[in-house]
Amino acid sequence: MDNDGTLDEAYERLHRTGPEFEGWLSNHGPMAVESMVRRGHGRRVHRWLDVYTRRLDDLPRGTSPVTADDWRTALGDPRRLGDWLAFFAREVTERPWRTVLETWWPRLLPGIAAGATHGVIRTGHAVHALLDHEDGPRLAELGQALGYWAARWQPVPLATPSGTADATSALAGVPRVPDQSAGINHRLDQLTALTDWPAVLAALRPATDAEQARDRLADLTTAAVLRYLTTAHGSAVMLVHSATAPMAVLRTLPALPRTQWAGSFDAAWSASAAVTAAYTPAAPAPRHSLPPAPESAEEAFTLAVHHGDEHVIKLADTSLEIHRRTGEGDALAAVVRAAELIDEL
């Protein structure tokens, strides 16, 4: 994937910065550069970082070490961000990274909404890079990702799917939260008040074994990407995560014990449904108003890189995977849609 060290150089630059900036915005740099390098655009990474890193804050310092005795009380406390980053920096250097992931994945998964799902998304990109090649900067990136997830750990209501609906139908059945104002935390807090929310989550067809979990997760990611094309005007930025979060989980599965795959699918579905409920518009965009698909996947990703927005790049990375799997032109058209709408922000 990366024969000239570009990704490791990018990680080293980014690890001098924090996982958040301007108070709470997520640092998308590690996710975007991993996608760009893997998709053959490594030559543009450092120029992209020259611009992007101007927005970022310094790496936060810890105040009190997280320990094996108090980690539960520190979970989800953003004031302990520096402590969590230091904790996982030690974990990934002192223990095999797969062991760290196997231990912490089930602990963190109930809080999959962390950082508007960026905790799990950054983790998925880090695991994807490590599965290709293991070295110091990539191990450090996994530590940063897990530390960010732990500090921003935020649960959403979970339920095990038990219905008959496919992913497309299940997402179509997700209701909107009543108050579509304010930020994601305010919107997600409304889910517990939706009396039919457990039934909404249960409607999806379950996964009864590891292979089904993997396949259902791929179907969910596909449905979310295709749905983005017609609903992105609800929030062109936030609805990206209804697709990129389950894709991150899907990419992490090969590094996890198969016994954790079904639970991973369940959590990814809950996260994707929650983001959908929080930002879906009142009505889909008319089909005639939507952009055509680029002629090729390569053209779609090049468009995203030239556009430069980190959300467009992340969506393009996921959309290309869906296009490779299904041949759906709408997966590539979703990239154009994201670029157009984000230009208007």
From TrEMBL:
<protein>
    <submittedName>
        <fullName>Questin oxidase family protein</fullName>
    </submittedName>
</protein>
<dbReference type="Pfam" id="PF14027">
    <property type="entry name" value="Questin_oxidase"/>
</dbReference>
<keyword id="KW-0560">Oxidoreductase</keyword>
<dbReference type="InterPro" id="IPR025337">
    <property type="entry name" value="Questin_oxidase-like"/>
</dbReference>
